[in-house]
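Hi there,

I know you've been waiting on this one. I reran it after we fixed the sequence typo, so this is the corrected version. Both the input and the resulting structure follow.
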Amino acid sequence: MAGNKSDLILKQQVDDKVAMNFANENDIIFGTTSAAKNKSSVDTLIDKLIIKYLEKRDPSLAPTEKKDEGNIKLESNSNTEVKKDNCSFLEFTKNLFKSKKKEEPKKVEKKEEKKLWNFMSKPNDKNATEKIKICIVGDINVGKTKLCKLLFNEKYIEDEQNEKKENKKYNKTLCYNDEKYFDAEIIDFAGGEGNVNLIKNSDIIICLYVLNNENSFNELLNYWYPFIKKNNGNKNTIVGIAENKNDLKNENGVQFEVDVEKSNDDIKMALNIDNDIIFQKISCKTNLNINVFFQKILTKYIEINKK
């Protein structure tokens, strides 16, 4: 038992004698230390503990009635810093748990797929021989504009009224796998009601909802997907659904989970569709799985249009 911060004598609230009496009554080794100020006081306490430990293992090392000291001596050399540290608590515990640390499995970091696509601000690029239309839809405050920033390298302006009121259009050149170039038109829906002319004949439609707001998922089921199905005339349209805000954690620091989390099969069943849709859990805040999600969408688009 150690009474730490013994250098703060003027602020002491527990008398050393009280602590010492408690230690004696319970056969506890007691000492006062000042770990931050005086290393020698720490070493003295640890010396006592180690000697007591060795004496219990081998009673012959304990002092007899005629002897004032036992047969155990812990060497210390003040001129050699390395030897002095060998008697320290830090070194003692390091050696004690060395074997256990070796047994701990190494953490394997999950690496995202290599990015095979890039959006460039060249809408009239001569290499872009094909056109592609991309729409991003979803209820308000699900992260559509933030997703645009991550996908299309667009400047993101927060807290502006018109950001939520107006649909935004971007014209880019999309380069896929350094060989396929598209003249890309991207529409970021502002939320609320969809625009038939904007959704019509889209090649890729990305739907967003957030895991901590069930209303946003219900909007996807009851409004956005039926709207897309009714008004989009392109039978080869690729639909991607993303559950945003997977960075959220509860008050205990545990990953946030609610009932509206869906798997790919759950989504398909809820929307009553037969064709495959691409589903991904993402976080626009931490950039989680954004590359993976869009890579799946583009790869599928290329495959379908090769047929």
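Quick highlight: Residues 117-306 form a domain with the Rossmann fold fold (CATH 3.40.50.300).

Best,
R. S.
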